[in-house]
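Continuing the batch. This is chain 6 of the set; chains 1 through 5 are on the previous pages. Same settings as before, nothing changed between runs. Recording input and output for traceability.
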Amino acid sequence: MKTFLKRSGLAIAVAGLCINAGSANASSHREAPFITEVPKVDGTDFYMFRSYETGRDDFVTLIANYLPLQDAYGGPNYFDLDEDAVYEIHIDNSGNAQENLTFRFQFSNTLNDIQLPVGPAGDQRMVSVPLKNIGDATNSANVQFSQEYTVSVIRGDRRTGTVQTATNVTDGTSTFDKPLDNIGGKSFADYQTYANQHIFQIGIPGCATNGQVFVGQRKEAFAVNLGEIFDLVNTNPLGARDGEGAGDLADKNVTSFALEVPTECLTGTAATGLDQPVIGAWTTASVRQARVINPEPTAGGKGATVEGGAWTQVSRLGMPLVNEVVIGLKDKDLFNTSEPMNDGQFATYVTHPTLPELLEILFGGAGAVAPDNFPRTDLVTAFLTGVPDVNMPVGVQVSEMLRLNPAIAATPAAMQNDLGVLGGDNAGFPNGRRPVDDVVDSALRVVMGALTSDAPNRTTPFTDGVQLDPTELQVVFPYLATPLAGSPNS
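Output for chain 6:
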């Protein structure tokens, strides 16, 4: 079938035209039109922080979440990743808004067709089962579909740079197993123990010390009232921080790419000569430019689609909430296909934001007043350059990404302030982002002038009314909690 693709230029042209036409409309919890059509590559959240697990303070943890709004009971296929995509975490350690280092994850599927004898002795037939597993799912003999992945390390441009393959230190191979999703208590007697067996030591080319990697389902940690926020902020932004319950994502899972890397392998000290190097990072996902639907897919041969052409980026995520509530609807897909070095095209959305104006329209009677210090250089600092003396790189090029100064000591889990820098905890958002950080409340306060000395609402404690219970999180890698089980459930 792939030979057919190479021969049929018309097929590629037509498929490419269809995909490009769709991507004129594209990620973070379904925030752009096109990405809703390909949820397996929808990047939802990105965390980057100095590791605060005991004894791991010389490491930086990167967690890229994909595939949003997972209902734990979503069988029989659950939430596998796309083997026809690449998932990437990009690192800028020179401040020039271009990747110096990329970690690329690619997946492959394994189908172990499990059949059962059905029928009487004279008419017995072997018939394939419809479920992913037929017994204890920790026993591979009972599992008929699984995934594994590789991690490539690319230095320089993501498409043309030097590519090396990371090593699974446990067995010396270049592949890592992804755990099955948490199907339920009958398939997994102890899912947490099973999932922890998929935390691997990873040998990263060019690094003298091994890191850790885990890719698998986790409990969603992003605390937000999505429904209320997008229903014209149908909540009380001046109410109690925990006054709106557990949030709309409290009963959802997500798929996490967790990678712990020695800090010295990420910073650009040797190359840039910076005394206090700052890491900038963002995530992307890319699919092939052309896709042909196979009208007669077969498991053992031709699949449901045939992919071809160049890798085409359809998802991008750095700072939280940017594409959701900052970028205008008409440009959301364009943002998802763009790179930080080209962010000048989106500058007006930051210097002249609409969200504060909307909040004033909706809540002016309660005292909400949009700042009028245009252009909003305070937001440029928060979202596009980093905060001076905290996480602004020397010679930074204005661009949107998550930035971390790993020279700032990690705050122990029990002492973390979920408002990060606004709460006096410089190890938190926007100096990177930890799972506990309440980025919604922080972002609401910043857009309404918390960093501006003369803004009317500078000290107003805006909130979406939802706070994450920090006891839900782990204090060890991969930090996010064990996913909710599909069964039994309430």
